[in-house]
Amino acid sequence: MLRSVELTMELPTVVFSTMNRFDDYSTDDMQCGDLNEAQILSLGIDDVSERVDPYRLLRFDTSKSKAYRRFDYGVAPFIPKGIPITREECKSILFDEMRGLSTQFAHGQYANIIKEMIDNFQYRNGASYSNHGLDKAFSTLITQTEHGHALGKIKTAINDKFVSGPLYDNHRPLEQQIRSEIYGGQMHKFNRSQDNFNGLGITIHDIHAQEIRLESLRNVGYSWSASVRFKAQDHFGLDKTDITSPIFKQFRFFRIWFFLQRHKDYAFKPFFTNFSANIDIHGEI
Q1: What's the pTM value of the predicted model, to 2 decimals?
Q2: What are phi and psi of 245, to 5 degrees?
Q3: Closest CA to 238 of 206, 191, 211
């Protein structure tokens, strides 16, 4: 039965792709240097850093800066004395502070990834980023969250295709059956509770675009095996919705990130993060 399906399927074939496109520079989180000071302040981003005032280019005593808010509904109860610095010095201090704050979200084997991505943000002018460890983490995520998600749905579709009985439409093309199953499930994302602390949630806080491709499909006796490739892309960038969310806005890490990316005088470019996984699956007919 499986052999007849192989003859009607041209492999590899894409069995799922998100509506979101890969390499999409038009999204709000991929913009940079597009906001002036007044526009950023209107989003509530007044208290950016403990170490510097990036609006006035001042470095100040961090022991006093905790009480500092540049604007507090029009009232500034305490403005610490600061030492004038250059914009380049300010940028360097902000990035160092961002790296230090990243430890709130990154512990263990993936902690180095966020540091590499911050380096990419600072030095590589928007160049895309990839990391073998991130590929491995994605592969582990897919296999560990199989039930109810895309990988499990693919297995179900292939198994159901070769089960006799009135409940299954064996005349429906397998590609369509797989697509239907996937759309009825969930995509694999780094949104588990542990991802808030292991460094994966902060680096890939969402997956913007995904593509799933069936690479091969074989049968031996009463069993089958297949190879599936998952390709994914996220944006290392923040949009206005991110920074006005109470969850993100409460953390100085994200306020510094947004400021460095979106302020017209800083304008560090966001970038695409690319990762993938090749998964082998099998089942009984």
Answers
A1: 0.87
A2: -75, 135
A3: 206
